[in-house]
Amino acid sequence: MRIRVINPNTTASMTTTIGEAASRIASPGTEIVATTPKSGPVSIESHFDEAISAVGVLEEVMAGEREGVDAYIIACFGDPGLLAARELTRAPVIGIAEAAFHMASLISTRFSIVTTLGRTGIIAEHLLDQYGFRHHCRRVRAAEIPVLDLEHDGEAALNRITAECRRARDEDGIGAIVLGCGGMADLTAEISDAVGLPVVEGVTAAVKLSEALVGLGLGTSKFGDLAFPRPKAFTGRFEHLSHMTPSE
Ligand code: 2AL
């Protein structure tokens, strides 16, 4: 089984962190291929960053379709381009936010999210509404660290995230914590040990959900809205997508 883990930001060191965390948790026989778009933001911390990154995610899915991939993971906590990516393939496509919400809801009745910057919290709030998890989440918290500080100042970032997780444990009345950034993929064990609550991290959760779906023989439904997009003309910079029928 081959899982293509797409880091939607273009920071190579974060792609490595994500790929290593995914490989550590993967079952024997699962191959993890971690990739990043050729173009796009180095980190995703705004609606603008997210919109631009979605194009890169879709190009990575199209490349995966040419290579043969059993499942895709979108490894940014805003799940950029998720539904559009599903239109392009019969393989399962899982976003790390939705994977973490599902896993956390299976082991607790209430969880809190600890993400990077306060301004990205609204993205998680929107996803909770969109996916139907609003009722399961007590609070979206931010450690107020820029995404790239996870790479450049790891120790300080870990301390701030851990402190916010302790506040979530003490104040929110929760059973579990969801970590809200792909760049936190390698921090789960340390934070869980320090805080004493189950900590759910989306990249690793998505690997296990992907393995489960592929094992069950389940892929993205091509009935209804996730069918391949209707071929049509594209203009300008996107002309190469004209009349393309994705991997039917
Ligand atoms: C993210 C993420 O997971 N990767 C990134 O660049 N930005 N989202 C976030 N809330 O920090």
Please describe what this structure looks like.
This protein has 248 residues and is α/β, with parallel strands linked by helices. The protein is 44% helix and 15% strand. The strands form 2 sheets. It has a 4-stranded parallel sheet, sandwiched between helices. The protein has a 4-stranded parallel sheet with strand order 6-5-7-8, with helices on both faces. Strand 5 (111-115), helix 5 (121-131) and strand 6 (137-142) form a beta-alpha-beta unit. Helix 1 crosses helix 9 and helix 4 packs across helix 9 (202-215). The longest helix has 21 residues, at 47-67. The relative contact order is 0.17. It binds 1-(2,5-dioxo-2,5-dihydro-1H-imidazol-4-yl)urea. Belongs to the HyuE racemase family. It holds the Pfam family Asp_Glu_race. This is Aspartate/glutamate racemase family protein. InterPro entries: Asp/Glu/hydantoin_racemase, Hydantoin_racemase-like, Iso_Racemase_Enz_sf.
Topology:
Elements (H helix, E strand, L loop, with lengths): L1 E5 L5 H14 L5 E5 L11 H21 L3 E4 L7 H6 L5 E3 H12 L3 E5 L5 H11 L5 E6 L6 H4 L1 H18 L4 E5 L7 H8 L3 E3 H14 L33
Parallel strand pairs: 1-2, 1-3, 3-4, 5-6, 5-7, 7-8
Helix pairs in contact: 1-9, 4-9
The site of 1-(2,5-dioxo-2,5-dihydro-1H-imidazol-4-yl)urea has 15 residues, from loops.
Pfam families: Asp_Glu_race (PF01177)
Protein name: Aspartate/glutamate racemase family protein
InterPro entries: Asp/Glu/hydantoin_racemase (IPR015942), Hydantoin_racemase-like (IPR052186), Iso_Racemase_Enz_sf (IPR053714)
